[in-house]
Amino acid sequence: MSDSPLRAVLVDDEPLARDGLAAELARYENVEVVATCASAAEACDAITRLRPELLFLDVEMPEHDGFAVLERLEPEVLPPAVIFVTAYDAHAIRAFEAHALDFVLKPVSRERLRAAVDRAVARVGELRLLAAAALAPETAAAETYLERILVPERGRTLVLAVPELDWVEAETYYVRLHAGAQSRLLRERMSVLDAKLDPAHFFRVHRSAIVNLARVREVRTLSKYEHEAVLEDGTRVRVSRDRRARLEALLRSR
Fold this sequence. Notes:
The protein is α/β, with parallel strands linked by helices. The protein contains seven helices and 15 strands. A hairpin with a 2-residue loop joins strand 9 (174-179) and strand 10. Helix 2 (40-50) packs across helix 3. The chain is elongated and about 65 Å long.
């Protein structure tokens, strides 16, 4: 599995550009193009059905642009390697803010495409190895929770140890991971991440916040309906009225 070709989807509304990129990628043994799409709607359908590991995505398209594709996809089906291919360099900053692995300008040279594919192969290879290790019988447990979180960033993947997390904040299509003085955005649903964190150490105090119980230093009542948890660094996190009692019970049992 770790050596199998990366399954790729190409998205571009221009037939010549789409077919040209597909023909060029046919030269690669480590990439298999499983679908080509001419619109955002086609792309979302193909990605959801085929679960590719690599996505080549145009920006300027009719009706919905390439960024809309990423926004419409559920985090669990979003390909781990996204490469924007466009004629407009003005979109570069937004592309990397959307956690793209690379940004390639048209017309695409073979050398530049090779560099982008090599980066994708390296990233997906790392993820495959981590996934295989997580499934190894010797490390399996009755209940397996995250020990580390992989956060794709511009040109790299940050590995964040879960015990370093102070709290997690919901932010539209993402969650923001707070660890010390730093915060990182991860494209994941709050409910999905909550299910992956050990409930002995983390608790969802509000629909938009999860706290590391070891970081909680105080639970305050602001009014009949308002409560908050104060973390060891002074951060104040809103606590739902119906979750305060459970939070205090968990803190007493530690």
